[in-house]
Amino acid sequence: MLAMELLERDFHLAELAQALAVAEREAGQLVLVSGEAGIGKTSLIEQFARQQRSGRRLLWGACDDLFTPRPLGPLHDIARQTGGALAAQLQTPTDPAAVAAAFLAELQRPTLVIIEDIHWADEATLDLLKYTGRRLGQTRALLLVTLRTDGVEAAPPLRLLLGDLSRNATTRRLELEPLSAAAVRRLAADSALDAEALLAQTGGNPFYLRELLAAGSGEIPVTIRDAVLARVARLSLSGRAVIEAAAVIGARIEPWLLAQVVQAEAPAVAESLALGILRSHEAHYSFRHELTRQTILAALPLNKRMFWHQAVLDVLKGTATDVTQLAHHALGAQDHAAILQYTQQAGQEAAALGLHRAAARWFDQALPYVHELEVAEQIALHEQVGLNNQSVDLEKSRLAFAQSAELARAANMPMKLGHALSRMAVVHYRRAEFTECDRLLSEALTILEPLGPSPALVGTYPLLAMRQLLQGQAAEAIRYADKGHEIAQQLDRVEDQLQAYQIFGLCTMPLDHTEGLAHLRRCLEMSLEHRQYRMAGTLYANLIMHGLDVYDTAGVDRLVTEARAYLQEHDLDFNLNMVTAWEAMLRLYQGRWADCEAKAQSVLATKAAPIARIPALVALGRLLARRGDAAAAAERLAEAGRLTRQIGNQQRSGIYFCAAAEAAWLADEPEQIEALAAEYLATAIRNRLPGFAAEMAYWLGQIGATPATQPWMVAPYVAELAGEWERAAAGWAALGCPYEQARALAAGTEVAQKEALLLLEPLGAQPLSDRVRQQLREAGVTAIPRGPRATTQNNPFGLTNRQLDVLRLLLEDETNAGIATRLHISPKTVEHHVSAILGKLDVATREEAAERGRQLFP
Are 778 and 785 in contact (CB under 8 A)? Predict the structure, then answer.
């Protein structure tokens, strides 16, 4: 029997060898070796490592199957092999970026790195892989990662990681398939078992095959469990104890730990090794296959499983064992005191790394035993559950803070009560439940202010300031922001100082837009200086948003480039979503409509928060309205309107109201413009929002009203309202807004109106183009640029909308990679589109296609 022979994997070994050659010669590579459980992923990479190890540096780490995974588990394995800066960073891993940078530094010389079983990885490890995958091309390493494909759909973080990695040019996927009938017959050649029956029962899974064949009986076991336990049954009593304890210890079994837990002689361990159930490595044991360990573990009665977990826990106490291992065994043993101690320690470690989902799971597991703690400790545990669930489960967070408040009230602990109420108010704020938020804030302040400066009060004032700002009370908002900043300084809490300062800058905007922007820029500088990554991410988004309100397209363009690099460097995906949504608006203003659509769609394709979804919906809705797709535009803008009114943020509401007013103007609905202006214009003026206030006044002017203007409003709009179309057009041109420039020119002379058409046609702005042509016809002009016929405009040469987007980018001499990046599609998809375009335009080269495109879009 050839059970140990690696069959039908020559192709995969060749692919890995080719990836290694590319990594060492050109740029680092990442290979995802995937397949169902038992398909032979570990066997493949072990064989490859044996073939390639001579003269090469090899690093090996693995993820463990724990109740809650150990943060950066495989990196700890690797650090034991490298030592140096990576090991030093992992001693106190409070800076994920520094840990990731240290790992990346280890890959700068030719290295083969293997990380097994990322389906069990914690979020920090997944983040590390995303960070590394984006930068692997700068190294000379081959990173092999194994994962199970079954169960990926039930693990959203892993699924998102795989999607992110798939977009990297340095990533390839190697899927292992089950063995063929011929391979099964070869494996079963020396066995009494029927090969066809084996294939039907196992589907060609190598592990199932090996286990069934190893059982050696004349009967085919009904399940793999029977096969595994049949092999275990051959062991002596001491040998079975070794196997049971080893299954409880986990995937990596330290010899000293196994010996102390079982207190068995070496022959008992040797028996398991000889039977092939355990494997011996340089410094540890492991099961020959993880499914064997899981089968043995599942077969243990509860009382025996608890006994072994307690035995392992008793040995590990007092050692330098990772706290997640201690918590895992405490939970398995159902040792209440140990659960409360170690799960909370594990939660605190995860929270320090910013892994709030993992932290929430750890604290959640302590909750069933919370009544065994003192009252103050119960409050602290509920607070941790609440804090770490704020980004995971808002209802669970609210309930936890409510429990903290109830306990503090009953125990007469006013400081803790005020803190819990303040934190509960944050939850209601995020859920846009402002009445309850305000009630809780009022009660919290009533309790906390008489107690003097405290961290609880620092967190309460900024939220109160934001509530005042949303209601248009800028002066009152500044007063509370100032209070929060002053207390934060007294308590020397940098993060709280920056939070208060940011809100102060936002609150200053309605009083002096320029000064408010200056405060935000200074706050960003300080955040970067103090490595407050998430704060910097929020500030980038705020600066981009407020820069767009004054149509500073050049400045915002530079800021977007800077922000994107920073946010990608630090894997701040939430903030990157925000920046991308506002970038869609920037590209709309700049006339880069294909980019606008791609950016907006990329945000809407994710589960973006409402504050990111609104600008993406508005950018797309406005674009569709300008292209003449009124129904699709109305659908997007309706959702944006619903979310805008739900949130009630007066600083950001203008993006929706102005877009809806433009759509109404293009659809000849003056009553709708009047209604929108009545609802929003006074708010925009009260908050001194230069662009939103000016634009809403402009749309009123377009339906015959004469709204007042202010010196602080965006100048080109003011000029248009005054009938100074030349000054307005020049202003829009200087700001880099071709559509707005054309709209201003449309109010001018015949020459100006024809110039407007030259700007509008390449954009595909059909509704406004039609208006301009109608104006020219009514003025008696006969030599009017015809523009594309309707059929050609909608689908020239039978091109799809996406092919039109690709063709427009070919006009800019963009490469396939550049088109893929701008349209958020794969380079291979771009290849297909380009090929289709060449065929439909009947040309042979990209250059010829671009020339035909210039005829279509002069």
Answer: no
